[in-house]
Amino acid sequence: MIKFSGLDFIKINKAKLKRLICNLVEGNGYSVERVEYNFIGVDKMIEINKEFLDHDYATDIITFDYTASKLISAEIFISIDTLKENATKNGQSVENEMIRLVFHGALHCLGYKDKTKADKQIMRQKEDQSINMFHVKQTLNV
Fold first, then answer.
1. Which residues contact 116 (CB under 8 A, 6 or more apart)?
2. 3-class DSSP state for residue 93?
3. Sign of CA dihedral 36, 90, 117, 122
């Protein structure tokens, strides 16, 4: 089960997004048990950062990964405000930045890291591939 809460700030094909997340997960030998994406305000993100990470600032995403035995289970929090700021700062559309963060959280659950420069480069490549896949037009074979 993949659930989106608070994803009403942008019009997006949620069914397609869910399908691509499942494709990514299954392509890495995992299955989705439960992933909840929560799109929240900056104040709530700061509160979560303080409580769980001892940070007194907002981040764009926090992933609570409960994955076990190749079954993906996670709660993912994404700051709408920070997402929009990052989109502007990086010359990206809000839609693409949102897709990037959704897949960023899923990639963490698959074991991808972003602490080193090399890890960040791999993570960014995977995110870019996911954004590109989202924008591929589906055709029907008749």
1. none
2. coil
3. positive
- Let me know: does 47 contact 87? Beta carbons within 8 Å: no
Q: What is the largest CA-CA distance in the chain?
A: 56
Q: Hey, what's the torsion of the CAs at 65, 80, 120, 12, to 10 degrees?
A: 90
Does residue 10 have a pLDDT over 70?
Answer: yes
- Domains of the chain (ranges; CATH) run 2-134 (3.40.390.30)
Helix residue spans in the chain (DSSP H): 14-27, 42-48, 80-89, 94-109, 117-134
- Residue located via tokens 């791999």: 122
88: tokens are 């502007």
Q: Which token pair is 92?
A: 């990206």
pLDDT tens-digit profile of 32-82?
Answer: 999 999 999 999 999 999 999 998 999 999 999 999 999 999 999 999 999
The three-class DSSP label of residue 75 is: strand
Q: What whole-number distance in Å separates Cα of residue 77 and Cα of residue 91?
A: 23
Q: In which order are the strands placed within the sheet that holds 71-79?
A: 2-5, 31-40, 71-79, 61-65
